[in-house]
Amino acid sequence: MRAIDIQTGFTKHAEGSVLISFGDTRVLVTASVEEKVPPFLRGKGEGWVTAEYSMLPRATHTRGSREAAKGKQSGRTQEIQRLIGRSLRAVVDMKKLGERQIVLDCDVLQADGGTRTASISGAWVALRLAVDKLMAEGKIKEDPITGRVAAISCGICQGTPVLDLDYIEDSAADADANFVLIEGGKIAEAQATAEGATYDEEGLLRLLRLARIGCDSIFAAQAKAVGR
Amino acid sequence: MRAIDIQTGFTKHAEGSVLISFGDTRVLVTASVEEKVPPFLRGKGEGWVTAEYSMLPRATHTRGSREAAKGKQSGRTQEIQRLIGRSLRAVVDMKKLGERQIVLDCDVLQADGGTRTASISGAWVALRLAVDKLMAEGKIKEDPITGRVAAISCGICQGTPVLDLDYIEDSAADADANFVLIEGGKIAEAQATAEGATYDEEGLLRLLRLARIGCDSIFAAQAKAVGR
Amino acid sequence: MRAIDIQTGFTKHAEGSVLISFGDTRVLVTASVEEKVPPFLRGKGEGWVTAEYSMLPRATHTRGSREAAKGKQSGRTQEIQRLIGRSLRAVVDMKKLGERQIVLDCDVLQADGGTRTASISGAWVALRLAVDKLMAEGKIKEDPITGRVAAISCGICQGTPVLDLDYIEDSAADADANFVLIEGGKIAEAQATAEGATYDEEGLLRLLRLARIGCDSIFAAQAKAVGR
Amino acid sequence: MRAIDIQTGFTKHAEGSVLISFGDTRVLVTASVEEKVPPFLRGKGEGWVTAEYSMLPRATHTRGSREAAKGKQSGRTQEIQRLIGRSLRAVVDMKKLGERQIVLDCDVLQADGGTRTASISGAWVALRLAVDKLMAEGKIKEDPITGRVAAISCGICQGTPVLDLDYIEDSAADADANFVLIEGGKIAEAQATAEGATYDEEGLLRLLRLARIGCDSIFAAQAKAVGR
Amino acid sequence: MRAIDIQTGFTKHAEGSVLISFGDTRVLVTASVEEKVPPFLRGKGEGWVTAEYSMLPRATHTRGSREAAKGKQSGRTQEIQRLIGRSLRAVVDMKKLGERQIVLDCDVLQADGGTRTASISGAWVALRLAVDKLMAEGKIKEDPITGRVAAISCGICQGTPVLDLDYIEDSAADADANFVLIEGGKIAEAQATAEGATYDEEGLLRLLRLARIGCDSIFAAQAKAVGR
Amino acid sequence: MRAIDIQTGFTKHAEGSVLISFGDTRVLVTASVEEKVPPFLRGKGEGWVTAEYSMLPRATHTRGSREAAKGKQSGRTQEIQRLIGRSLRAVVDMKKLGERQIVLDCDVLQADGGTRTASISGAWVALRLAVDKLMAEGKIKEDPITGRVAAISCGICQGTPVLDLDYIEDSAADADANFVLIEGGKIAEAQATAEGATYDEEGLLRLLRLARIGCDSIFAAQAKAVGR
User: Fold this and answer.
1) If one looks up domain A4-226 in CATH, what number appears?
2) pTM score, whole prediction
3) Assembly ipTM
């Protein structure tokens, strides 16, 4: 597993801000608190947590075109940002959050595999910081965050399970999985895709167990970053 | 598990055409053969299989807005069509297919849960029919399809695992999973999402085993539909 | 003239649902009742009837690109859906409908000429069913539908007038007309376009008279479909 | 019928340029010759004639939003520009035009009813001027224009047929028709729509005969404008 | 400097309407009064002045594609319309205007260099006419217009400063500047861009002094056009 | 003037990469070399330099919406990226660059006024690094960069000229100018806009002289960053 680094307060305006690195993958995550909710929640006394994801055009080996210039987000981008939002919502009690929205912006400054898992893991820290701020200001009485959430990729490369794949490993993997785990053992989301080869039940379990090991390291890094 | 029905030849123009029903969910799938490939494959002697997905505006309980009128496909639509394409590619040998593309259009006429799994299961039949036609015409020498692929949803509703969730069950499920399985036991894709509650390793395995039972029924229905 | 078939209740969610066939042309039409009106009608106590039209990508001989994927509706699509809406509004008393909107979605499952005329003819049945439902529920007191409306194409092929052109006839026609007629003899809309050759007043009248014959068959089929 | 005025050479860059007025309706039409054809015609030795239509935002009583700012053309705009193109193509021999395209841009500077009919009538003059220029330069040997085409609106207002409706008459009309006629008596396109009331065969014929009278005046104005 | 011509009342619907010519450059400017303001100003008792700019496709030597058809405005278009709006707002007291918006539509009918400066200079006249109308109707008590604003381009061609560049001069210029000046000597906006060669402080001053001469002519033409 | 900091090699994939800070404004600039040119330059043996600009949604005090999600770039974004590209091209000899393109991506991580001037100043360093790499690889023989370019904002706040305005100063400024200067004294671009008050010739000169002082500091920082 690659070195994990979480630097809080990377930018000054956001209610929560984190630069998270999984090896050479670096994602800037900000949490923005908005005192309004999406239309389908108005007047219900509940909050919402959502995410947006983007890669800078030259985060990758060769420059990709800018989505804002093309005028639309790719399917990959939308799939990832939906996953990030869902993962964070799995550990938030929306009633305790109150009628406000927290938007997690995950912008990949440099990519080397695992950008979605770094985004989820960093987003939890940014969210934690933003909620701490809301609680310190007295806007929220009870902590709406029910636990930690982290994510890690793992795959099978030439028959061997590998944790936290970098770009080269990811390109060569026969199976590619992303697990979003909640501290304590529960699964928030499991996605495992066969690439070259398919895998079986045993393979899925081995990947899941590997992911648990990886997430434990991330939970520790998250705890250190938020100071508890 | 709901009744599965596969009606081949539902429309006349497509190289393969299927109306598949999982209970009240009905999807029209057509396979279109195009003698060209996407730019990234040109001149490599390999083929491609891709999919597009859409719901008719009134396939659902209340009318949804038409994506063509809004001018963009939702994240959900893109996520699903990417999954369908990936699932079918898991059982196709692109070299044997030759430099041509097969597009699987999955249009949901009526929705009652499981539209993506019905789409994948029906798309395999449409693909099989289109490839049979190409082989009968002598355009393909060796069968590029390496096996059957089917998909089924399953979930945990009030603690009980349920197979092939309809809309009401899906809305109430604590966890919602979709498995794409290959005949013989391998997994092409597993996606399991916690909704209200999260789940653990044991829960994931129970869902997977349930999915195997469901997919066996689908494999049988596919075999009957294509006559072998 | 080709065989006309109208199958009601083809899908279960919509307030009115019809699968109409003109020969090999098959269109699924649903009528959706919405208890709101477009902004320009709000608070006026009047209703609205509108239509959307689309062809499934492989409804035709060769696959067309999906409008939702391209991000815009073609001029042809917009022209047709405007015509369908206008045709239906010609037989609806908007005051009696009350402040609600009925949307007619016409999705062409298979195309072989005459998709817009089949859409209009089928949309009347779907509208009739939806209004019957509103009346049965007591939401509407007086019937807002003032008569039947049907549409048929006709053209001049090598000097001979032809009714209800299929795709091959349509491609070869020197003139191509669509008439939207109201039971009893009135014209809601007439559109006649010269293709290869132009036509004269006599030609226009012959086409119109032919259209009357065709619409009489459709009125009969509509009556049978709605049971009166 | 309102006064018709055709001013040629209104702008200097276009191969053909016309400011046409039907009463207070004023449309600037330019014909641009491009030495290329749309993809579907490449290499066939045939030309193409097409049209684009737009209203300036404040051509009308109240300002409409600019289509370029909204990011899409309305259905009405697309319907009209398709009609203009079709009407002009009815009098052009594409083989004689040779592999080039003429684009007719119809921009409404001021609107008072009849903008599409003024556009078609003016576009013929701009096209004639552009073709004359191509012939004078020796790029075209034989005249590809087979005749004159003109268009006029007519309607039934309170039972009385009216020719060339202005905005107020158009708003009040029970039926609204547009005829595109070719000098000599043939019809290129007829479109008649019932608004408040429907109309019958006799009404359609009366409108057509009225349109003939109007188009004769336009043909005379076109002849004078192009000097023959 | 090229001949300046300002023709008021060119179209009849707009509250202010001007056809302004700088040589062969001709721009139709309309001022539309709307009794509402953009969201960020609602309820503040202040007005707003904004502009939209467009070139007709064949205003130029070769036909450009229509922005409405392409579905977006170019960067150049947006840059120019932002400049026009800013320039006009420099001479309007928004409190005196009251909670209403004036939209200046600048549509270039023919282009020969200087379309943005002609647009600004003409827009002031259209704005003046629209405000005069509001004052005559008693809707505005005190004149919100604090002075005249005009704009002119100038450049350095082969070492020689040139005023009001036409298209050929503009293409050949080493430096290209646009000045927006307020009668009495103040500068609203200065933009000077090096093209082939760069320029120095002395060059900038010479261009500015030249612009003053040009704007004095425009101020005189504006005064004549509005009758004072 | 605020502290300037230029950190090279901030990301690893790009041919040139810089994190530039003007006080709290921080922009990540990457230079990407592409061995192709835009269509209008193909086959001419000349290169091109262009730029794209974006602000991360939470670079600012309150979160702005993501342009990729909205589906279009704002006028402000387009105006700025056009300015950056123009400024860099002022110091590049396109023949010496050869038929390749360098794209400068300027992504604002944190904004506190002066994002466009920091972008230009940082883009020169990223460009220099990318060109150095091309020269070291022997792909370019002669240095195509003809000099240094830097940019700084300045304004008049309550009568006092201020250099390198931060967000609060910028909001309060009566006039707001951006100067793009070339080492040695020439001006590449000058843009000065009156906000509350207008300014005169003397004011413009004072701003320009102030800008010279600021750019001298930036030139020194650029020299230090690239090691010469």
Assistant:
1) 3.30.230.70
2) 0.92
3) 0.94
